[in-house]
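Sequence decides. Consider this:

===
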Amino acid sequence: MTATVPAPAARRGLGKRAFNKKAVVPWLFLAPGLLLALVFKFWPMAKGVWLSFFDVRPFLGDRWIGLDNYTRVLTDHRFQDAIGHTLVLGIGQSLGAILLGFVLALLLEGQARSLKIIRIAVFLPAVTATAVVGELWRLMYYPTSDGLLNSGLHLLGLGPVQFLDNPGIALYSTMAMGIWIWAPYNMVIILAGLAGVDRSLYEAAAMDGVSLWQRLRHVTLPAIRPALMIVLTLATIRGLRVFTEVYVLTGGGPAGSTDVWMTRAYTLGFTRNDIGGASAASVVLLCVTLLLTVTINYLRKRGEAR
């Protein structure tokens, strides 16, 4: 006589197997991406942290030196100058891109088909390779009267201006390109925030005779605060990790006036073959980026809790 499994126990077993299957299937879809991230991102990151404690000597064997690489990087006057350039470029580029993105979002908000076409055209700089954009801006900044910008200045009786060869304005010329690239990206996020604003608030404000500035300050900005915090977080990370714009336009010159943290680390690692020092510089940047990101998220949650 065969034993029968009680119906409730059978149902529990079937439910458990179904639950396990549902839990495994998403991970199967994520597995290829996680594997690629492990091989090409997390493993190199861990290797970089490990190498930052060594004097890397190919074919001779790495030598443990502890925190000497970090001490050398943080006391190097060229890295100290690069910190200042990174902060100036990152803050100026981030604020400029956020402000311009906000203005573009206000101008292009709506459901008209023509606005959708314009939004696509405005968004193109954000999806174009930064290296390609950099080469285009190099042509625009061409230092003779044949350059696009200098030809316009020539019509006004000015110039030619050495946009990229003058240490006093090269960093700000690079900043202008960064603002042009990232403002459309910010615009899309802010547009998503504007889409969630209650239109009845605008109607009530108009009936009360509220000015445009007061509507922006007391209605629009509080409503899109989550979108602005996302934009600010992403802009902070981009500002600290800025590399391609500087490398393509100036390579850190002239006379190191546009040398930022990432270009300095690149030069240290791939020009001077100081892999340990470059790894230490990268780890410092990673720690600062994580700290700022956590701080911004903490302030965001604290503001939402009020």
Q: What stands out?
A: The two ends are 68 Å apart (CA to CA). The beta strands are 54-55, 63-64. The first helix runs from residue 7 to 51.
